[in-house]
Specification:
Length: about 300
């Protein structure tokens, strides 16, 4: 077991995933620093870092000299990655390369936050031993390239694949599928959601606990930190309305073909048994996650 005297650096620590991990590790009294790109308001005393700048990336990681780097910075907008492949490559692949090379210099272990999108949609339920081939989006391709760089580096590493993270957020964070439904229905507004896109949504508090356990146990390898339900967006919205006591009649089922989108999203089902086998942590399904959200609703 690792003690909490190890130094941790979170790259992208003011974003949704990095920010929640930062808060969680701080509550556990771990020695944790973070970098930010666009927003330093949340926690103060962070380090500005554009990971596409190789010299600055090396300088900051060398200065902090962390035992562990959690790489949570990425261009995650699927449509934007498809429209601007050069920018997606620069941030998600070249930026990751810069982080890895800096970690090689400091001999830091690296945790790479990845995605279900490294796979292509099929009827298969993928586990960690399955080899991702031909992702269905350019976003997925850039993240897969990042995974390959991590594995090739020979650093001690964890690759954590997640899907559609949800939970309460800080005011500076991007929103998520659950909060969009709650916001619209709370205002008595109709909300359209999709019947033919399926996900295994990740409840963020479970992600935090699982990541913490993997760090504590000094685990290495690939883990699927996704939820336990493979569910379409409309049924997810229905369950959200039900749990939060909102009007389900305001939800309108639609096909993805009715959306003005640049690229379709594959429905990708990930198996999450490995994390339970290694840590005893069971990743929640939708109903259990939503009920936990309701129970832990932040005070206004």
């Amino acid at each position: 077991m690792i003690n909490n005297k190890m130094k941790i650096l979170i790259i992208g620590g003011s974003g949704v995933i990095g920010g929640h991990l930062f808060e969680f590790l701080k509550r556990e009294q771990w020695d944790v620093e973070y970098t930010f790109k666009a927003n330093n308001e949340p926690y103060k005393n962070g380090y500005f870092l554009d990971i596409t700048d190789q010299d600055e990336t090396s300088k900051i990681i060398s200065k902090i000299n962390p035992d562990l780097v959690i790489h949570a910075a990425a261009l995650a907008n699927v449509d934007q990655c498809q429209l601007d492949k050069k920018l997606a490559n620069k941030i998600n692949t070249d930026g990751t390369k810069n982080v890895i090379e800096s970690c090689q210099y400091t001999k830091s272990k690296i945790i790479y936050i990845s995605t279900s999108f490294v796979f292509k949609g099929s009827n298969k339920k993928y586990n960690e031993k399955d080899n991702p081939i031909n992702p269905g989006t350019h976003y997925g391709l850039t993240k897969l390239n990042g995974e390959k760089l991590v594995l090739k580096s020979k650093l001690k590493s964890l690759i954590l694949r997640i899907d559609q993270p949800y939970g309460w957020k800080q005011p500076w964070h991007h929103t998520n599928s659950v909060l969009r439904v709650i916001e619209a229905l709370s205002k008595k507004q109709e909300f359209r959601d999709i019947t033919d896109w399926f996900n295994v949504p990740t409840y963020i508090p479970d992600l935090n606990k699982a990541t913490f356990a993997l760090i504590n146990n000094d685990e290495q390898g690939i883990f699927h930190l996704t939820g336990s339900d493979f569910i379409n967006r409309f049924d997810w919205a229905l369950k959200t309305a039900e749990i939060f006591g909102l009007n389900k009649n305001l939800l309108i089922p639609i096909s993805s073909k009715q959306l003005d989108i640049k690229i379709a999203r594959d429905s990708i089902n990930l198996d999450n048994k490995k994390i339970y086998e290694k840590t005893g942590i069971r990743m929640k399904g939708i109903e259990e996650g939503l009920k936990d959200m309701l129970l832990n609703k932040p005070m206004l």
